[in-house]
């Protein structure tokens, strides 16, 4: 038995008909299939982008700011080529050895005044000695007068030249020539007659054994040897000195030897 059955009913689309507001055209009703690999690609790109941005934000947030160091290169100073070389027209400053002065005439002046004058001119190397050869010390220069000078007056010489003044006490007369102290050069006994006991002692070796006796009958002690003059000596003048003892007799300078 056959039945004529009607065709199955089509599903009814509920919505506004095509062409009305809110309706979709027929082509929009069709579903478009997107391949699976495309979906995987887009998802992967999205995850990568979000992870990269997250790492960047994490790194930037956790990184501490570093101080900025600026290095400036300084050129090394170069010495001037001509610093160590004096200019052609530049002359070295004169030293003391190059300074000169004219020596004044000091004879007849008091020893202290002569020394002051010498220093005013520029001389500073000053010495003095007993012009009578008695080897007395000029303890108070004002009590002495100049009889001679080692550099002749009017001489132009360096200001560091030694100036030596021969002097005697104010009440004494100047000798015609400076009496030089005796000397035992050559190992020979000098002639001490008329010389001061002090000068005789100074001429002999410091270790020499010397005995000094009063030549008068008074048997006085010889204390200030520069005020005593030698009358006799043993050994005699010209004898070779080999360390033997020396004996002297003496009287004061104002006295006569007996």
From TrEMBL:
This protein's record includes keyword Disulfide bond: no
Keywords for the protein's UniProt record, in alphabetical order: Membrane, Transmembrane, Transmembrane helix
Biased composition annotated in UniProt, kind: Polar residues: 59-73
Biased composition annotated in UniProt, kind: Pro residues: 1-10
Residue ranges of domain PASTA in the record: 183-252
Domain of life, per lineage: Bacteria
Compositional bias (Basic and acidic residues): 79-101, 171-182
TM helices/strands, residue ranges: 32-51
Record InterPro entries: PASTA_dom
One Pfam family recorded for the sequence: PASTA
Region (Disordered): 1-27, 50-103, 171-194
PROSITE patterns: PASTA
Name of this chain's protein: PASTA domain-containing protein
Organism, as annotated: Streptomyces ambofaciens (strain ATCC 23877 / 3486 / DSM 40053 / JCM 4204 / NBRC 12836 / NRRL B-2516)
């Amino acid at each position: 038995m056959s039945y004529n059955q009607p065709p199955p009913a089509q599903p009814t689309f509920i919505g506004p008909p095509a062409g009305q507001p809110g309706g979709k055209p027929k082509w929009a009703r069709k579903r478009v299939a997107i391949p699976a690999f495309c979906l995987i690609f887009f998802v992967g790109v999205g995850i990568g982008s979000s992870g990269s941005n997250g790492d960047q934000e994490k790194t930037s947030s956790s990184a501490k700011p570093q101080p900025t160091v600026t290095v400036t290169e300084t050129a090394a100073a170069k010495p001037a080529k001509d610093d160590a070389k004096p200019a052609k027209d530049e002359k070295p400053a004169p030293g003391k050895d190059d300074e000169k002065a004219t020596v004044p005439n000091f004879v007849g002046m008091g020893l202290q005044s002569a020394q002051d004058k010498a220093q005013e001119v520029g001389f500073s190397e000053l010495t003095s000695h007993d012009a009578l050869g008695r080897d007395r010390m000029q303890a108070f220069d004002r009590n002495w007068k100049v009889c001679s000078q080692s550099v002749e007056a009017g001489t132009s010489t360096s200001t560091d030249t030694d100036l030596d003044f021969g002097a005697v006490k104010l009440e004494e007369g100047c000798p015609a020539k400076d009496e030089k102290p005796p000397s035992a050069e050559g190992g020979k006994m000098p002639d001490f007659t008329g010389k001061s006991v002090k000068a005789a002692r100074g001429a002999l070796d410091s270790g020499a054994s010397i005995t000094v006796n009063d030549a008068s009958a008074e048997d006085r002690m010889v204390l200030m040897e520069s005020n005593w003059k030698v009358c006799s000596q043993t050994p005699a003048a010209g004898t070779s000195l080999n360390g033997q003892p020396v004996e002297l007799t003496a009287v004061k300078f104002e006295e006569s030897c007996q």
